[in-house]
Specification:
Distance between the termini: 47 Å
Region (Disordered): 1-24
Order of helices and strands: HHHHH
Number of domains: 1
Number of helices: 5
Largest sheet: none
Helix content: 55-70%
Oligomer: single chain
Strand content: under 5%
Structural class: mainly alpha
Radius of gyration: 19 Å
Shape: elongated
């Protein structure tokens, strides 16, 4: 019952509305799941190591920050998450 009471307080409702407003203004959302950027970087290093014929993904150069940003906002069909993300990339 304590959890429910905390979520019905005015303080919590104010925080919730502020978070919803920030989320509404995010016009380039990423598609990363629990692994985040670390998992994405590992995946990109592995694909680059395979392309270069390296025996270990650790030997592949780290992807640039803009490559990580673009990959995080690219859907599986190749489209970007939003038109603003496509414009930026």
């Amino acid at each position: 019952m304590q959890f429910r009471a905390s979520r019905e307080s005015e303080e919590w409702k104010g925080k919730r509305l502020a978070a919803q407003e920030r989320e509404r203004l995010n016009d380039a959302p990423h598609l990363l799941s629990r692994g985040g950027y670390a998992k994405l970087e590992k995946k990109l290093r592995k694909s680059r190591a395979d392309a270069l014929g390296l025996e270990s993904p650790d030997l592949a150069p780290a992807p640039a920050r803009y490559d990580l940003w673009k990959a995080a906002r690219t859907k599986s069909d190749g489209n970007m998450t939003s038109s603003s993300a496509a414009l930026i990339s």
